[in-house]
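User: I'm putting together a teaching handout on how multi-component assemblies are represented. Below are the sequence lines for each component of a complex, exactly as they appear in our records. Could you produce the 3D structure of the whole assembly as structure tokens, so the students can see both representations side by side? Please keep the chain order the same as the input.
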Amino acid sequence: MIETNSLTKVFVGKKWKVEALKGVDFKAERGKVTALVGPNGAGKTTLLKIISTLILPTSGSAYVDGYDVVSQPNEVRKRLGLVTVSDRLLYYRLSGVENLLFYGALYDMSIREAKKRAYELLDLVGLKEWADEPTMHYSTGMLRRLAIARSLMHDPDTILLDEPTLGVDVASARKVRQLVRKLSSERTIVLTSHFMHEIEELADFIFVLKSGKIVAKGSPEDIIKMAGMIVEAKLDSNSVTALVERFITKYENGYAVIRGPKSIVEQFSSDFYEIQPSLEDAYIALVGENEQDFRPYQFRRGGAWARERPV
Amino acid sequence: MSVLSKLYAYLYLRGFKVWISYKTNAALTMLSWIIPVFTYYFTGTALGNRIVSGLGGGSYTAFVVVGLAFQGYVSSTITTVSQRLRNEQLYGTLEYYVLSPSGVLGFLTYSSLWGFALNSVNMAVILAIGFGLGVKYSASGIAAALIIFVLLLLTSFGIAAMSGAVVMITKQGNPIAFFFSTFTALMGNTVFPVTALPWYLKDLSYAIPLTWALQGLRGSLLEGLSFSGLSNIIYVMLVFTLITVPLGLYLYSKAFDKARKDGTLSQY
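Assistant: Of course. Below is the structure of the complete assembly, with chains in the same order as your input.
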């Protein structure tokens, strides 16, 4: 189980200060998939990295199975498997099984033990027939599955997955989701994703994070209910304002098709009709875009620089 | 078992297998071990012998062979640790070392071992070429040479830890490695004796462990001096070890604490 209380993280640079987390209370239970969603720069990765002891919090507390991430990092690390977002998470010149063997050795496993475990995991993630192929020949989906296998080498109870299907094709993403579901029965799983259908399919509980704060939490059904009645309407393209911009789903014959909470849409059009809301509708209604998209510590992904200059 | 599997992982898998997979790089690296010996041999026969024999130190070839063979331990360890650390930081794999029970200290130790292992081949090649060029090694000094050699490895490990700390803070790999390699080659008694340096650089040279280690290794391997004859050098090397290793480990661990605070364990 994971629990954080009033967790904050402030990054301070020479000319900037970013409050990445502002008093986050988060909880993830064993046997469930807990999702962390939010726009870029909302603080999802920071939260995962604090839980995994890779970043120290500014204040507040975080526990994994009762162990404090600051004062008992070694106990936490034993219980944790992490899959971060990166283009390069493995040694490309080594094969799939060699990569796993390497990480097995880091976890004090003997060569024989690591080899046995590596092949079991390669089988689990569907890469057994590619075990001896250098990973530089793997597709993105295969690399993500191998990264998940690596996180399981020491058989941790808790797995943190940061955007596990990012850049992965549809069929491979489906395999990753099947794998997550399989793993979740006996473990605590936390995952972040921008794909709401994926969250809807996998998550038992969702935390919605925006600008470092939890703005909503609950089961997928609860989150959908929070958005209230969702309606769709057509709006003259010329009358689109910043307020409705995030609700536009498409442009059609000079009209913008908007889809959002009735309370907002009715301000712009009286000609609307109710639709069955999805998690994505609820997400857009609750969050939209982030006010800050600034990663002081992570410049790996696109769109990393300040959309709005932080203070 | 755990140490064996780590040696297998770091030295064979991440070290040798990756290194040899870049075939051109591996071939050029091996050439770079050999070429300097001949370069200094030919320039030495024209110029160096006068300097070295003038100081009562035997042939220049013998001087430079021992210098090149052991200088590599300093440069290759620092280069290996700093470049490796920087690469892992760039790829995001450094975080996985932090998460593992081996930790960042295991990373430092085993990465240094790869540097030592690679340079041991380099050393053997250079000493063999030296033998072929007429250098005579003394068997009676081997025990003393071994002690000095171990102390050289330990100080190199300490300096490598310091360079690792610098890499973690500055996010620069190559320039640091290049600086240390060039600096030690120039100032560390490697290809010309310290006494040939101007007085203001000579003092600085004595602040480098390599200067003392090479003096001791030449004394033991070329002149057959024993412990008693090299006690001063062994004592100085011991002091260097007692300073560089704890200081290096302290700075290295502080640099990682800072990276965890700043969130920069993985960063371009």
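A couple of points students might notice: The interface with chain B takes residues 9, 11, 46, 49, 52-56, 74, 77-78, 80, 82, 84, 86, 88-91, 93-94, 98, 101-111, 114, 150, 296-300 of chain A (CB under 8 Å). The first helix of chain A runs from residue 44 to 51.
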